[in-house]
Amino acid sequence: MNTELHDRRGFLKQSVLTSLAGLVGTDIVFAENMPKHHVPLALDEGLKGKHPDMIVLSDKPWNVETPPHLLNDAVTPIDRMFIRNNGLVPEEKIDPTTWTLTIKGESVKAPKTYKLSDLKSKFKTYTYQLVLECGGNGRSGFVPQTSGNQWDQGAVSCAEWTGVRLKDILNDVGLKDDAVYIGYYGKDLHPSRDASKVVISRGVPIKKALEDETLIAWAVNGQEIPMMHGFPLRLVVGGWPASVSGKWLHTIAVRNKEHDGAKMDGHSYRIPRQPIQPGEKLAETPENYQIIESMPVRSLITSPQSGAMIDFRKTLTVGGHAWAGDLAVKELHVSIDYGATWQKASLQTPKNRLAWQQWSTQIQFPKKGYYEVWAKATDSHGASQPMVIPAWNPGGYLNNTCHRIAVKVV
Q1: Contact, 354 vs 368, CB < 8 A?
Q2: Do 83 and 229 meet the contact criterion of CB atoms below 8 Å apart?
Q3: How many Cβ atoms sit within 10 Å of the Cβ of residue 277?
Q4: Rounded (5°) CA angle 30-34-35
Q5: pLDDT bracket for residue 10 (50, 70, 90)
Q6: Whole-angstrom distance, CA of residue 218 vs CA of residue 221
Q7: CB distance 266 to 89 below 8 Å
Q8: By the 8 A CB rule, do 54 and 64 touch?
Q9: Average pLDDT across the chain, whole number
Q10: Contact 323, 298 (CB under 8 A)
Q11: CA gap 387, 410 in Å, rounded
């Protein structure tokens, strides 16, 4: 081996490690064992600003959950928004001044490309509060355990997104009469780092794409979208699984058939058309599995935090949020006796369609001891959250059982 080259490589590696240690503020123990491409958690750009109590489920790709008590705000702060990535965050340097969005596909009259500045200047800007929820939120409750990240209850947010309506862009491009679906493409990197592989490319029927609240967004809560959440441009589709809200968006294809991109097949974001036995294997065909669309009714208790100690002499104020996919929430009830009786809570109207709704009530406990407070939401079509885990499915999707917290009255 060329000794001079070997020495130089050793010097470069040591220089990098010294620099990393300087940024972290202390020695990085066992730094020589770091895998290729590894970025220390303390330095990962995508996680800067994350609330310290967020729960990291995986780091390749990043999947980070929000404990329910951190979701007490009417509008979810950016540092408390859950993170769900199927692939790796783009490693290329992103320049928003040169970023483009292309609309193409079988059902556009002619493809068209817009710069980010074009979107901001040519179309009217809209801002909506929109619920984004992972289709697997609550997955950890299923027995037997299913594949995928074992989310508890916190893979949901309701932030304020700003951008242009997708329908306005599609009207500008011009659609053919045979348009039935849209599919998105982003710059996320496949975990294998094979640039030829698309990690995820999902979409929605054209009717959902043309709703007023379906946005091409460049800001969240009045700020530039953080890298981890899709900078500089993101498709935001409220009320449906958050996997249809593509990050790092550069292309939308308007299809004359159901979109067939990555994660649109098998049982990805699909549930069995008929109930099956827990653990049962089913041929992964469209005849057996249907795509998840509008998310089911659900609620969270965000205050107090589970495990709270309550003074018996005082009344407890309990509150949280409720949402119901494409629908509104009609009622919210709480129980302290495991569902034997229910007490109606005060329920606010949503800020706009597809936003969650705040609720609150006061509870007087009959005596000292251990209690569970349960919350049950009912949507505008009369469907309520179940008190037990709903039908098992291989993907662990749509567990919308009543949320509950434990309290001790002393």
Answers
A1: no
A2: yes
A3: 9
A4: 155
A5: very low
A6: 10
A7: no
A8: yes
A9: 91
A10: yes
A11: 27
Whether omega for the bond prior to residue 191 falls within 30 degrees of 0, making it cis, is: no
For 5, the token pair is 């080259």
DSSP code for 115: E
Residues whose CB is less than 8 angstroms from the CB of residue 223 and which lie 6 or more positions away in sequence, other chains included: 78
Q: Is the pLDDT of residue 8 over 70?
A: no
Residues in the chain: 410
pLDDT at 17 over 70: no
User: Residue 22: pLDDT above 70?
Assistant: no
Kindly tell me if the per-residue pLDDT of 45 is higher than 80.
no
| Dist. CA 289–CA 273, nearest whole Å | 5
Q: Which segments of 102-161 does DSSP mark as H helices, in order?
A: 116-122
Contact between residue 119 and residue 344 where contact means Cβ atoms under 8 Å apart: no
**158-to-202, 237, 321, 325, 353 alpha-carbon distances in Å:** 21, 12, 10, 12, 12
Confidence of residue 30 (pLDDT cuts 50, 70, 90): low
CA distance 16 to 39: 12
**100-104 and 249-255 beta bridge pairing:** parallel
% the chain with pLDDT above 70:
88
In three-state secondary structure terms, 75 is coil
Identify whether the C-beta of residue 100 lies closer than 8 Å to the C-beta of residue 250.
yes
| Contact in structure between 409 and 310 (CB atoms under 8 Å) | yes
Rounded distance between C-alpha atoms, residue 311 and residue 29, angstroms: 46
Residue 98, both tokens: 């040169």
> What does the block give as tokens for 275?
């109930």
| Tally: H helices and E strands in the chain | 4, 24
CA-CA distance, 335 to 212, in Å (whole number)?
Answer: 37
| Residue that is written with structure tokens 């001044």 in the block | 97
Other CB atoms within a 10 A radius of the CB of residue 394 amount to 22
pLDDT tens, position by position, 130-166: 999 999 999 999 999 998 999 999 999 999 999 999 9
Phi first, then psi: what are they for 62, rounded to 5°?
-70, 130
